[in-house]
Each structure stands twice: as structure tokens, then as C-alpha cells.
Amino acid sequence: MFDCLKKIWYNCFLIFFFPVVPGIPTVPFSCLSCGNEGVRTSCLPEGKMGSNSSRISDLPKNEYLKKLSGTDSVSENDPFWNQLLSFSFPAPTSSTELKLLEEATVSVCRSLVVNNPRTGNLGALIKVFLSRTKELKLSAECQNHIFIWQTHNALFVICCLLKVFICETSEEELQLHFTYEEKAPGSYSSDSEDLLEELLCCLMQLITDIPLLDITYEISVEAVSTMVVFLSCQLFHKEVLRQSISHKYLMRGRCLPYTSKLVKTLLYNFIRQEKPPPPGAHVLSQQSDGGGLLYGLASGVATGLWTVFTLGGVGSKAAAAPELSSPLANQSLLLLLVLANLTDAVDAPNPYRQAIMSFKNTQDSSPFPSSIPHAFQINFNSLYTALCEQQTSDQATLLLYTLLHQNSNVRTYMLARTDMENLVLPILEILYHVEERNSHHVYMALIILLILTEDDGFNRSIHEVILKNITWYSERVLTEISLGSLLILVVIRTIQYNMTRTRDKYLHTNCLAALANMSAQFRSLHQYAAQRIISYTCRHLRRYVYVLDKLYFPHYHCSTLQHCFSTLSDNGEELLSLTCSHILRSYAFSLFSLLSKKHNKVLEQATQSLRGSLSSNDVPLPDYAQDLNVIEEVIRMMLEIINSCLTNSLHHNPNLVYALLYKRDLFEQFRTHPSFQDVMQNIDLVITFFSSRLLQAGAELSVERVLEIIKQGAVALPKDRLKFPELKFKYVEEEQPEEFFIPYVWSLVYNSAVGLYWNPRAIQLFTMDSD
């Protein structure tokens, strides 16, 4: 009964404070929970922004927008605001249409930039919005659709204006535009109030406090989008901002107490993946003939302009924009990443990063240390599930990286999960389709694997998880394979792709580091995984000899050998029976005798002399010395990985020994090489030991019999004869990681944010691929 009376009082409150304006019709409305009827102004006869604008192209001529941006001041109590904020036009549904909206309104916005210091109309609009948000929570409870719709429209207009102001003005000018004095709108003084700080605090309150319902969904998204727009000043600077308006307002003052609550809400928005309300739930639906809006209370909330962000693509690549099931989750995640990657202020660390680094599981009852600010708790199981399900997007992978790298509570929880395949498989699929992903996404996925492989428990457990029918792996039908063996296959494939296509040293080094971390814990390797480890090593051993051939014997190299390498497939199987193996062998022994500890210098000199002798040729010669260094680095790491496995888990991996024995001729050629001699000792010992046992068993042995002999020999081989230090690599961020992450995050915002468009020609932070 009390709730019913409260809602009746609230309806009377709206009628008193938002009276019927002459000439504007009223419509009946009722409390949806109790049926008590009242009267509410519809604010605009046809539901348009003025009487004419029903298309984007009409906006520059719109009289209400002209008045807003003109030379006359408009009081915050003027009925004009009710008229301005009751608008609708066909919603943009692509990045092209969003661009048209930007181009159609930019002249109006620029006029406001010029006139606002004198009129103060921007401040009046913000005050109208601020006054409405004070009653927003109660409006949601009372299902007051029109009030919420107009409040959303006010915020939408503010967001559009703010975007242009940030792009067109300096930070000092921007702050001046948002400074407002009560007594004389448009005049600025030292004691005037700062509406920008009020607006930001209001947005934080709106995001964190307003319940997420069908009628509040669009205004929640708009609030998140407006905060993203406020932070977008970074887009228009080439250098990373270390002191900006964002630092001033978001890292101190009235906004600071909202830090943990905001981060928690944004995370939960990502976790819940709430979908927008269905079109049939809107109170204001456009007529089929493209005319005005019909107000009907039974049907839900206003469409207004909110479909701008639920339907619109962004950036310059309209076709690349994926369809989003939850605009709020996407927008919240982007805002969270932007906040987390803000640089520290001069006098204080980034509080949003602190919040992300320290939050705990809701099941963790231990108290937070007093030294940890902005702490909160969240459901880790729900977070884990969401992260597993959303790894197809760059931003979800970046969030996973951020949490694993910076929050020890999250990392410990994830490594203790018994269903790690749900997290690892999406990461492996990203790497498997490396040619379809951007390089940053691949890096993040790879570093996540590297962080996970730092844990021995993870390295053991992934070999205990058996997978069946991995449909996305197309090289070979894998009816049954362990997660660990699949991980090895995908990482080796990634290294191979990098070495043949992108040749990025950073990428293959991290791939090899992940394999090295796992190597001591290799268990029951699938025969294909074992074969790929050995065949990939052999591929580079042969490639190494080929490059030596090109360096030292440029005019007399083996044409057959060159042809073999030029036609070598990804699997490297063509060289199993190399027709010129006798040349390989003779080259290997003759060339290795020339090498000393300073062989790199020798190779460099050889390259220079080769170039000098062939300077008349217009075709530039490859830098074989540099190639040789890269190949040598890969070979050594692969040999160390094999060595580590043989030393620590020989008896668990008969398939690896089998593959090694199958290629023993090539490995034997490298036992005297100065760069590999130390790591070849154990491998040579294993080859010699098992070769002798196979020789004793006689000829014509079946695969099964060979494996049986290997298993028996692994038990008989004294462990003290194999000595090699365990390989351990740890991921450490490079100095000034913000130089990488801030442009990356903002490129995600540019390409993935819903309903936000920036002129690519104005962006300076990163290079645009296309216009």
C-alpha cells in the first residue's frame, strides 16, 4: 500500500515540477504496478527533434539545435528543453550512417563551441540532465518511460557535443566550457562550479546505482559511452598522456570514492552479458510510414535514439564489426580497459588499476590488508565462465591477460580449476587461426599461455585432460589427444607461421619460452606432437645447413638442395628422404670445422664479401648472416626443449624417443657444432643408447616392437647419466608498457565501441589502416 501511495505522490511530483506546456498535448499514464492514472505531457506532438527533422540529413537545419548552438542563452527552466529532448529519427545502422550523423551535426557542435562561452547553453543542458538524474532511480521504480527516455536523450546530446568539444578544443578551453555560474549563465569566475566534475560523478552514480532494467538499459549504455568519450582526448595525441584532464578528475577529488564500485559494476556488466530489451518492449515505436512516434504505455520504453548504439558499427571497417549480443557488456569492458591502462598520476598511482589488481573472490572471507585501497569482492566462478565464453574478442583476451598478470588472486584461482580446457582451448584456437587475427590479439593469447606455463601444476595437469575430435584443427584428424599435446602442436604451428611469414622475433621467442616451461613436465606425448617437435627441429637444422651453403659456397651450391627448401611444406615431411643427403652431410662436417666461438663475425664477413662480389646484380641479396642467427637461436631452444624432456621425463615419452631415433642421422651431424655441442651431449647419449638396443633386437622391427624396446630401455638407462638444468622462463612486462597497451586499447575502442564514431583523419595515437 505504501509503495502504491509513494508512486501516486511521485506522479503528482512530476506534474507539479514538469507542468503541461501550452500547445503540447498530454497523454494519460498509469503506474504499471497498481493502475493509478495520472497525466503526463508528451513534450512533442510528433516525437521529433522539432517539427521537421525525421532524417539525419535534416539535423543541421533543425531549429531546436540551432537555438541550442546559437547566440541566445536558454535558461535551464525553459520549456525548450522538453521540446529538444523529445526527438527521434531513423537510427543509424552502420558505420557509414554513424559517419553521416557525425558530419550532419558537427556544424551545430562547432557553432556551440564558438557561442557557448557567451550563452552558457552547454552548462544549462548539463544542469537539466543533472536535475533529471536525481529522480532517475524513482522513475525506474515507477516505470516512468517518458521521463527516462528524455533523460537518455539529454545524455545522448551531451555525449555528441562532448565528443566534438574534446576533438576541437584544448583541455583548458574544454574546462572553461564546463565552468558555470548560477547567477549569470555564460560568465566565468574563479568561484564558479565545475560542471564537468559533477557530470562525471553523476555518470559514475548512474552506472553503479541505477538498477539495470529494460527501461534503463539504454541510458546505462549511454552513461558508459559518455565516460569513454570523456577519456578519448588520448586519441588526438601521438604521445601517451601522463598528465591530462582525465587524471585530474578521475584519480582524485569527488570521483575517487567511486573507484571500486565502478570497476566492480563494469566487471559484472561484462560477466552478465545482458542483452538489450527486444524492440517490442519499447513505449515509443516509429510508424511504418516513417512519421512521428506514437506514445503507448503498455508497450515499454522509448526507442528514441538508443538504437544508434545497438545497431551501429564503428570505425572505418563496417564489414568487420561483429554483431554484439550485449552492447552494455562490450562498452563496459572497453571502459574498464581504458581506465586500467591510464598512466599513474604524478602524485598517485592509477586507482582503477589498483582495484583490478586487488579484488578477491566472494568466497574469500579473509580481511583485506589496510594497505590495499579500492578493494572489493566478486564472484570468481562467474568471472571465469564469462572469460572462457568471450575469448573470440580482443578485449576479452586483453582482460584475461590483465587479470592473470596483475591480480594474484585471480591467477591462483584459475590455475586451481579442474576445467582449464575451457579457458585454454579458446586461446589455442586464436593462435591456430593466427592468419585471421591481428598481431596484438595473437601476442596477448601467447603471453597468457606463457604466464600459465610458469606453473608446474598447470604443466602437469594439461597432459591429464583428454580431448576428443578437435574440429577446428585441420592438419590432421585428432580423434583423441591430450590438452598438453594439442598445445604443443598449436604453438609449434605458430612458430612456423611466424618464421615463414611475419618473422617476428618477439613472437617466436615467447612461443619457445612456453614450450620450454612445459618441457620438463611432458607426459605421454601424442605421436603426432612428438613427431612435430622432432621434424620441426630437423627442418631448421636443414635450413641452417642450406644458409651456410649460400654463405660459403654461393656459386657452387647444390641446386637440388635449394629446390628442396624452396618447395618445403609446412610439415617439412618432403625432406625425410633427402636426395642430396650426402651433400648435406659433407657440408655439415666441412663447414662446422670452420666455425669457432666467433663464428657470427665470420658469417657477417662472409655476407659482406658475397655482396661485394655480386654488387653488379640489381637483385638485393638476403642477409644470410642474420637469418643464420635467428635459425640458430630457434635450433638451440628446440634442442634444449628436447633435452629437458629427455632429462626429466624420458620414461613418460616413448613417442618422442621414437621420433628422435627416426631422424638420428641428421642429429648426429650436429654433435660437433660449437653452438650446440653442450645440448647435443644428452641427445647423442640417448640416440646411442637406444640405437644399440634396437641393433641387438635385430632388423625388421615393427613400430609396436620398437616402442616396447624404448619403454624397457627408458627404465634401464641410469638417470644420473642425463644432466641438464630445468628450463624456466617468466613473463615480465617491458619498461613503459603503456607505450604498447594504450594505443592498443584505444584501437579496440575505435573499432569495437558501439555507436561511437571518430573521424579517422583526426586520430593521431595510432595509424589508421584505411579511411
From TrEMBL:
- Give the gene that encodes this protein: DYM
**Membrane spanning segments where?**
none
GO terms for biological process, alphabetical: Golgi organization
InterPro entries per record: Dymeclin
Q: Which keywords fit this entry according to its UniProt record?
A: Lipoprotein, Myristate
Q: Which family does it belong to?
A: Belongs to the dymeclin family.
**Gene source species:** Suricata suricatta (Meerkat)
**What domain of life does the UniProt record list for this protein's source?**
Eukaryota
Sorted alphabetically, the Gene Ontology cellular component annotations on this record are:
Golgi apparatus
What is this protein called in UniProt? Dymeclin
